[in-house]
C-alpha cells in the first residue's frame, strides 16, 4: 500500500490533505480514485490508514479509517555523518541509509574532501537530498523522514559529538578495533532503554588524515574498522548502520 508523508498542519482529526507532487502522483501515476486506500503520516507522531475521498487539482483529500501505531523505527537513532563525496554519491548514501533505518544525516567538510562547496547552491542541494530521503522513507515504510543538516565544518562536527550515546569514527588501522567489537559491549548495556543515539563518521574518497583521527578520538569518538575489505565512501555508512542495527537487535531477535 502506498505511503505518503504530509505536513502536520495538513493532518486533521478526520481528514488529511495531500498536496504537491504526492497529489499529482496519486492522480496521474497511480490513477487513484475515491475509495482507494493509502497510508498517511505526519512524520512525527501520527500515522493512519485512510481512503481517498476526493481528488482535485493539486490536492487529494483522504478520510482516516483508523490510526496506526508508529512501530517501524529502530530505538537506536543512527546519525550518519558523511564527508561530502563527489557526484551523486551523497544521494546514494541518503537513499540507502534511509532504507536501512538511519534517523539523520550530517554532511560535512574534511581535509580531503574533493567537492568544491558552493554555499549559493546549497539550498537546492538540500532540497533534493530531503526529497530523496522522503521518497526512500515512503518506500521503506518508515514512520519518519530522516533529518538532513546543512554541511558542517570539521570543527562543527566534532563539537556535536557529545550529543550522542556512542560515536564511531570509521578509520582503518593495523590491528585496529572493528565496529562489531566496539558495538557489542555497548549493545549489551542498552537494557530496556527506550531510545539511544549513535553517530557514525565516514570520510570522503581519500579517507581521513592521521591528524583528523587523533582529533576525533580526543573529541570522544571510537576509531573502528569495517572489515578486511576496502569500502567505497558511499558504502561505508550503509555497512556501519546495518552492523549497529543488527548488533542491537533491530534486524530480528538479538
UniProtKB/TrEMBL annotation:
Transmembrane segments: none
Reaction(s) catalysed by this chain's protein: uridine(1498) in 16S rRNA + S-adenosyl-L-methionine = N(3)-methyluridine(1498) in 16S rRNA + S-adenosyl-L-homocysteine + H(+)
Example GO BP: rRNA base methylation
GO cellular component term, pick one: cytoplasm
The protein's enzyme class: transferase
Its EC number(s): 2.1.1.193
Principal location: cytoplasm
Ribosomal RNA small subunit methyltransferase E methyltransferase domain residues: 73-244
Gene Ontology MF: a single term: rRNA (uridine-N3-)-methyltransferase activity
Domain of life: Bacteria
Alphabetical UniProt keywords: Cytoplasm, Methyltransferase, rRNA processing, S-adenosyl-L-methionine, Transferase
Subcellular location(s) per record: Cytoplasm
Annotated InterPro entries: Alpha/beta_knot_MTases, PUA-like_sf, RsmE, RsmE_MTase_dom, RsmE_PUA-like, tRNA_m1G_MTases_N
Keyword Transcription regulation: no
Residue span(s) of domain Ribosomal RNA small subunit methyltransferase E PUA-like: 19-64
Function: Specifically methylates the N3 position of the uracil ring of uridine 1498 (m3U1498) in 16S rRNA. Acts on the fully assembled 30S ribosomal subunit.
Family membership noted in the UniProt record: Belongs to the RNA methyltransferase RsmE family.
Protein name: Ribosomal RNA small subunit methyltransferase E
Native organism: Paenibacillus durus ATCC 35681
